[in-house]
Write a structure and sequence with these properties.
Elements (H helix, E strand, L loop, with lengths): L12 H37 L17 H10 L3 E12 L24 E2 L2 H4 L7 H10 L4 E3 L10 E2 L2 E11 L4 E23 L2 H4 L4 E27 L2 E23 L2 E4 L1 E2 L14 E18 L2 E16 L2 E15 L1
Length: about 350
């Protein structure tokens, strides 16, 4: 059985570009308004922490060191830029994991790179599956045939925790207040199992259903930019607790969706509508905007060397080919800065 997908007429390229740009500018404005509001809310506390020099009593200190100058020098130790390395673990929302469960993708609003998303049933049916491949699978399992049950696909496919690495740029106003920019990259993998029913095997001849489990995976790359304001509170001379809020941008690239049968790999995403000519799928990166929240602890080691650990949550627009979902992603991040 071959898949047939309906595609909308292609709009004029300049009109599409204009609509895309307008939509992105609107989203960026919303994020900037949120970030500006957060900074304004915290501005009074920031001013209270900055050292103020009073000139009304020029002769108040005739000898020794002005205590206010000592306080200003102490605050100046933290003011300025610092750069760091991020490492951690990233957990993608399970809300988008089922994108890879093998149900297939129907009715694309657009047709990115000519991609087709076959279901498990479509991919393992002729003519998408060649007669040679069909004979190989049946021979591998000593079966006369096989079929895909209606409930073959997994219902709760989730991402595995993935390794995250990136860079941090921070500008400290004081020990307690800073603007923080992070860029992180990660590779995600969603994994589960689906079922096939083998026909004509020994198990079925004994009046039993010969239903077997097979692996299905989805792989994607993501990068995340976030810019936020950090407000800290001192716990002890070397430790701050902080809360960080700001805007985020998530880039997502769907790499592949695969099933594994008889020690062979079959791609569900292909790049052509002709089932007799399956071309490699060409991934593209899609961008979504959102916001994030990250409480954490910052430790001051020596001079401007710091180490902090945080738990972050971001409400992102996740775009997987042509499917858009708003969901919460989470991460645990450790940063080393100097």
């Amino acid at each position: 059985m071959s898949a047939s997908l309906d595609f909308y007429p292609v709009l004029n390229s300049s009109a599409i570009s204009f609509l895309f740009l307008t939509k992105r500018i609107s989203e960026v404005k919303k994020i900037l308004f949120v970030l500006a509001g957060l900074i304004l809310v915290s501005f009074p506390s920031l001013l209270a922490q900055l050292p103020l020099r009073h000139s009304s009593s020029p002769t108040a200190y005739t000898s020794g060191t002005d205590p206010e100058e000592e306080e200003e020098e102490e605050e100046d130790e933290f003011r300025g830029f610092s750069f760091g390395l991020n490492i951690g673990s990233y957990i993608g929302s399970a809300k988008t994991g089922n994108f890879y469960n093998g149900d297939g993708i129907q009715n694309f609003p657009d047709n990115p790179n000519g991609v087709l998303g076959y279901s498990i049933y479509e991919r393992l049916s002729q003519p998408v599956l060649t007669q040679q491949e069909f004979s190989y699978i049946t021979g591998y399992y000593n079966a006369a045939s096989f079929e895909v049950p209606y409930d073959s696909s997994p219902l709760n496919m989730k991402y595995n925790p993935s390794f995250m690495v990136g860079l941090q740029v921070k500008y400290n106003f004081t020990r307690y207040a800073a603007l923080v920019f992070n860029v992180n990259s990660m590779k995600l993998k969603a994994a589960s199992q689906f079922t096939l029913r083998c026909i004509g095997t020994g198990a079925q001849q004994n009046a039993q259903q010969d239903i077997r489990l097979f692996n299905i995976t989805g792989n994607e790359q993501r990068f995340n930019f976030n810019l936020g304001y950090r407000q800290g509170w001192e716990i002890n001379p070397i430790t701050n607790f902080y809360l960080q809020l700001g805007g985020s941008m998530l880039g997502t690239k769907v790499e592949r969706n695969q099933i594994f049968v008889a020690e062979r790999t079959y791609d569900l995403f292909v790049g052509a509508s002709n089932p007799y000519q399956l071309l490699p799928y060409q991934p593209r990166t899609d961008i979504g905007f959102g916001f994030y929240l990250a409480p954490g602890f910052e430790f001051f080691i020596k001079d401007k060397y710091t180490f902090d650990i945080s738990f972050g949550m971001s409400r992102d627009k996740i775009i997987l080919i042509s499917e858009e979902t708003k969901a919460w992603n989470k991460w645990l991040q450790a940063s080393f800065t100097l």
